[in-house]
Amino acid sequence: MSKLFTIFGNPVSHSKSPLMHNLSFKGLDYGGCYTRYKLEDGSQLRSKFFELKLKGANITVPHKEEAFKACDILDDFSKKVGSVNTIVKRDGKLYGYNTDALGFLKAISEFKDIKTVLFLGAGGTAQSTSIILRDAGYEVEILNRSSKRLEYFKQNGFTTYTFGEFSLNNHYDLIVNMTSAGLEDENYPCPVLFLEKLFPKAKSCVDVIYGKETPFLKLSKEYNKPTKDGSDMLLYQGIIAFEHFTDGKFSFEEIKDYMQKAFIL
Ligand code: NDP
Known about the structure:
Blueprint: E1 3-9, H1 17-27, E2 32-38, H2 45-51, E3 56-59, H3 64-70, E4 73-74, H4 76-81, E5 86-90, E6 93-97, H5 99-109, E7 116-120, H6 124-135, E8 139-144, H7 150-155, E9 159-162, E10 174-177, H8 192-201, E11 204-207, H9 215-221, E12 227-228, H10 231-245, H11 252-259
Parallel strand pairs: 1-2, 1-3, 4-6, 7-8, 7-10, 8-9, 10-11, 11-12
Antiparallel strand pairs: 3-5, 5-6
The structure holds NADPH dihydro-nicotinamide-adenine-dinucleotide phosphate.
NADPH dihydro-nicotinamide-adenine-dinucleotide phosphate (NDP) binds at residues 61, 100, 121-126, 144-146, 149, 178-181, 183, 187, 189, 208-210, 230, 233-234, 237.
């Protein structure tokens, strides 16, 4: 019988995950079917999971912290960051993982000679990715327009700046747009003067937003640097989730062959 998977979130109508996973199930001849589920109340996640008789699920905004609480067994990294985006049921127990951060790490590890990294933005995605990057040996600093979200990073020992505290003499190998600026508007994530000072000295630039060339990415390309949007991060977190869903039956490269087709359809 086919195993059932879903993505829980609110909203979820835009999500590419059903297409990504269904292409891989079909291509690899694995009996799985992946749907989407708009969940308004995150505290219902665990009961919905069992009610729908799921084998696994991805969790997107705004339920990643609730997903963390819904699990019986957590991997070390999700324990550290307090958020889960992938759940798999084994022997009636829910296992939780965070594949977003690993996907981001893999995406940027394809750039050469990166040591120092500046994150523009301090939201949930920046929280988990900053920790995994530091664990992997990168030096990460955080720049955000307001101070409230910087508290988490300060408590975790990162150097942080609001716009007013930032020095334009600073330079970094990699500049990352971790904000939602540019997603549904044409905003830069920080004053454009900052980018004009940072880009010439950077080796590469990444935007976690995908499916759209943001003003940040457009400007970075003018400096002829290697760039990426958020597609590789999305693809890689999906492949790693798929590895968990299918209990390691398929290799990363095998899954990638099918899952990446979702980005050209
Ligand atoms: P959050 O809502 O948790 O945080 C948003 C951050 O963006 C805050 O730091 C906020 O600053 C900043 N921000 C928003 N608008 C502006 C603006 N106009 N100018 C400057 N700063 C701004 O977001 P998430 O961490 O959940 O998501 C961040 C981005 O990551 C989104 O664009 C999302 O689409 C993308 N993403 C991509 C994934 C992928 O697979 N490629 C996976 C997950 C997320 P402040 O604190 O001052 O409000």
